[in-house]
Amino acid sequence: MNKKTYGRKNVHEKTRNRGKSRRARQQAVYIRAGVGILLILTVALGLYSCISGTGRASGMIDTDASQPEIDVQLLDVNPYSRPGTEIEKINGIVVHYTANPGSTAQENRDYFNGLKDSHETEASSNFIVGLNGEIIQCVPTWEMAYASNSRNIDTVSIECCHPDESGKFTDETYRSLVQLTAWLCVKFDLTEEQVIRHYDVTGKNCPRYFVENEEAWEEFKTNVGRAIAKGG
Predict the structure, then answer these.
(1) Residue 9 above 70 pLDDT?
(2) Could you tell me if 188 and 181 are in contact, meaning their C-beta atoms sit under 8 angstroms apart?
(3) Does the first or last residue of the chain, that is N or C, have fewer Cβ atoms within 10 Å of its Cβ?
(4) Rounded to whole angstroms, how far apart are CA atoms 8 and 14?
(5) Residue 140 has what pLDDT?
(6) Peptide bond into 207 cis (omega under 30)
(7) Are strands 195-197 and 127-129 parallel, antiparallel or unpaired?
(8) What is the pLDDT of residues 70-109, one digit of tens each?
């Protein structure tokens, strides 16, 4: 009786052990599958970030309308880049891109200042935002810059550097642009709807990324509006 009982217990124990082993193998399979799926999702998200460029030229950011750090390097007064003409009232902010991939804020500022000697053209901007988010002021906000054609007389212009031909700004450039634009809006009692592109004045493909990606432009204005609402 005891031997038979012992034998049945042995059989039951072996059956239970086989069941546990099977469940353990299944759990291991599930774990490996889960890890594999997680790795696939991670790679996919990484590829999406690279392809779509989840830089701030098409994303939401969190900043305010406080005055950003500005490196004031005013151009010499001259007929080609800083005529010294005062503006009566600021009615808008105009966003531009340099159309010179990889160039720095300093290089663009020095180019504008050099026009007094080269007489190559008439061009300038009130502000230039660099690839690392640095901001150089070239012309006072109460003076006219040669940037936005017929709107030179009532706007402040912001020129932005960009790393490649797409015209898309770096995260640092974008963040500084949002903060600078919001600060200027508060300073001159403007809304984000009074922020325009060079394109909106003349039809020129400037700033390229914001002209060719309308959603990114609208999102940029939304970011500016949020920053204005937060104040300085």
Answers:
(1) no
(2) no
(3) N
(4) 10
(5) 98
(6) yes
(7) unpaired
(8) 999 999 999 999 999 999 999 999 999 999 999 999 999 9
| Residue 92, strand partner residues | 155
CA 161 – CA 59 distance, rounded (Å): 18
C-alpha 81/C-alpha 111 separation (Å) is: 10
Interatomic CA distance for residues 132 and 20, integer angstroms: 59
Give the span between the Cα atoms of 168 and 107, in whole angstroms: 19
Q: What is the pLDDT of residue 197?
A: 98
Tell me which residue has tokens 């010179």: 100
Burial (CB count within 10 angstroms: exposed 0-12, middle 13-18, buried 19+), residue 117 = exposed
pTM: 0.76
Give the H or E element holding residue 156: strand 155-160
Tokens at 182, concatenated: 């919001």
Give me the half-sphere count of Cα atoms (radius 13 Å) on the Cβ side of residue 208: 14
